[in-house]
Amino acid sequence: MSSLRRKLAVGLTYQEYLRVLQGTRRAYEAIPAGHVRLSCLLVAGTPAERAYNLYIASANTWGECLTAVGCGADSVEPELQRSWARASRLLSAAQAAL
C-alpha cells in the first residue's frame, strides 16, 4: 500500500490504479494472519486493513463514475482525494505501530 500511496501522489489512471491495487491484494492475501501475534494484528493490522478497504472503495467509486453518464473526473475527484488521504493516515498509523 505504500507503493500505491506514492504512485497516487504523482498520478495514476484508473487502469493503473486497479493494477497496483491488484498487486496489493496479492500481497495482502499472502500474509499468514494465523501466524501473526494478536497484538500486531490489533495495532498494525487493523488500521492497515481499514486503509486497504478505503482504497478498494475508492476503486469502486471511481469505476462507477467512469460508467455513469455525465459523471466526470471533476465530480468524483474530491471524494477520492478525501478517501485516499484517510487511507494514507491509517497506513502511517499502521507503519508506526510496527
Task: Draw up the topology in text.
Layout: H1 2-10, H2 14-29, H3 38-67, H4 73-97
Helix pairs in contact: 2-3, 3-4
Structure description:
There is one protein chain. The chain is mainly α. 82% of the residues lie in helices and 0% in strands. The chain contains 4 helices and no strands. α2 runs antiparallel to α3 and α3 runs antiparallel to α4. The mean pLDDT is 92.
Gist?
This protein has helices at 2-10, 14-29, 38-67, 73-97.
What are its keywords?
82% helix; elongated; 98 residues; mainly alpha
Q: Number of folding domains?
A: 1
Count of strand segments:
0
Count of helix runs = 4
Order of helices and strands: HHHH
Structural class of the secondary structure composition?
mainly alpha
Give the overall form.
elongated
Distance between the termini: 15 Å
Looking at the chains present, what oligomeric state does this protein adopt? Answer: single chain
Percentage of residues assigned to helices: over 70%
How large a portion of the residues is in β-strands, by DSSP E? under 5%
List unreliable stretches of 5+ residues.
Answer: none
Rg (CA only): 14 Å
On the 0 to 100 scale, the average pLDDT is: 92
Q: Quick one: biggest sheet?
A: none
